[in-house]
Amino acid sequence: MRIRIVVAEDSYLIREGLRLLLATQDYVDLVASVANLPELTAAVDEYLPDVVVTDVRMPPGDQDEGIRFAEGLTHSHPQIGVVVLSQHLEPEWALRLFAARASGRAYLLKERVGDAAQIRNAIESVAAGGSFLDPHVVDALVQTRTRQASSPLARLTPREREVLALIATGLSNAAIMNRLVLTERTVEKHITSLLAKFNLDPDDTRVHRRVQAVLLYLSSQNP
């Protein structure tokens, strides 16, 4: 079944780039492409898409419209997934997005828009109720916190940091196993160890809850 999508982006070039990219994908039905928050609100009410792909900043305010819109959908249309696009590496927006709700939410840098595989991963993840966080944002969060001697991140092994980054992008244990070419038992061991250092429950296998837990942990640490 094709995923019905509304795209919201004030930059004409990026909006057209997204439209052309998505038009070539057999898993997508692009039902609307809009340039500002009022148009996005109207398009969602009219088409009831499966996923919204939106800029983090849009007219009329050019501040945090994409994040606020995603927060509003949590209550008005909880079934709609949201992929938020950001021009710059701004971990605080990602943390805010996932703090409100992790399931059905993704945060992606605009530089990834031309990567068909990456944008597909994000869209399909949120459409299925999962989560996706751009690996570059994860790296920025981890690197910032790792420099703090008091942070449990400083006690993680290099492999545990790799596993943590993959958890935050929404991958399951099996996907992490394939990505790192490890056995399932080894992956489980690394996850149990790193979550124990965060005082988080390693038995919670729901991917989006793990993403939210890790991000909320990271956001609670002073940079």
TrEMBL record:
<dbReference type="InterPro" id="IPR001789">
    <property type="entry name" value="Sig_transdc_resp-reg_receiver"/>
</dbReference>
<dbReference type="GO" id="GO:0003677">
    <property type="term" value="F:DNA binding"/>
</dbReference>
<dbReference type="InterPro" id="IPR016032">
    <property type="entry name" value="Sig_transdc_resp-reg_C-effctor"/>
</dbReference>
<feature type="modified residue" description="4-aspartylphosphate">
    <location>
        <position position="55"/>
    </location>
</feature>
<keyword id="KW-0238">DNA-binding</keyword>
<dbReference type="GO" id="GO:0000160">
    <property type="term" value="P:phosphorelay signal transduction system"/>
</dbReference>
<keyword id="KW-0597">Phosphoprotein</keyword>
<dbReference type="InterPro" id="IPR011006">
    <property type="entry name" value="CheY-like_superfamily"/>
</dbReference>
<dbReference type="InterPro" id="IPR058245">
    <property type="entry name" value="NreC/VraR/RcsB-like_REC"/>
</dbReference>
<dbReference type="Pfam" id="PF00196">
    <property type="entry name" value="GerE"/>
</dbReference>
<dbReference type="InterPro" id="IPR039420">
    <property type="entry name" value="WalR-like"/>
</dbReference>
<keyword id="KW-0804">Transcription</keyword>
<dbReference type="Pfam" id="PF00072">
    <property type="entry name" value="Response_reg"/>
</dbReference>
<protein>
    <submittedName>
        <fullName>DNA-binding response regulator</fullName>
    </submittedName>
</protein>
<feature type="domain" description="Response regulatory">
    <location>
        <begin position="4"/>
        <end position="125"/>
    </location>
</feature>
<dbReference type="GO" id="GO:0006355">
    <property type="term" value="P:regulation of DNA-templated transcription"/>
</dbReference>
<dbReference type="InterPro" id="IPR000792">
    <property type="entry name" value="Tscrpt_reg_LuxR_C"/>
</dbReference>
<keyword id="KW-0805">Transcription regulation</keyword>
<feature type="domain" description="HTH luxR-type">
    <location>
        <begin position="149"/>
        <end position="221"/>
    </location>
</feature>
